[in-house]
Amino acid sequence: MTALKTPPLPDETRVAFCERLQADGFDEIVIRKALRTHFTRPIEGLSAFFKSFPEARMRHVERLARMNPNRTEYSLTKRVAKDLGITDEEASLHVQEFLSK
Q1: Which of 27-41, 46-60, 71-85 has the lowest mean pLDDT?
Q2: For 17, which of 5, 8, 47, 60 could close a Cys bridge (C-beta 3.0–4.6 Å)?
């Protein structure tokens, strides 16, 4: 089942919903879409909100690397920064963590 078709449980908070989706293996972009769909959460502030979901964030970095395995470190960093709405410096830290695995 996709995250968009996985509605929040009754009385489930935004944080609990995101934690559940992260535990189910979804990446940050998918969880963001589900959050906006089910809770109509505005885009502003999502980057800060998702700092507490590092596994989902790293899954997105991994997915981008799999989609284009020939991407340079610079290109991957730029794409991560753009997709997640974070600075290049923050994105670079995530890319470095991914590449060091």
Answers
A1: 27-41
A2: 8
The pair of three-digit structure tokens given for residue 99, joined into one six-digit string:
């590449």
The residues, ordered by sequence, that sit 6+ positions from 63 with a Cβ below 8 Å of its Cβ are: 27
Token code pair at residue 71:
């991407």
Per the CB < 8 A criterion, the answer to whether 23 and 10 are in contact is no
Q: Position 49: which residue type?
A: F
pTM to 2 decimal places: 0.86
Q: How crowded is residue 34: how many other Cβ atoms within 10 Å of its Cβ?
A: 22
Show the DSSP H helices in the chain as ranges.
14-23, 28-39, 46-49, 54-67, 73-84, 88-99
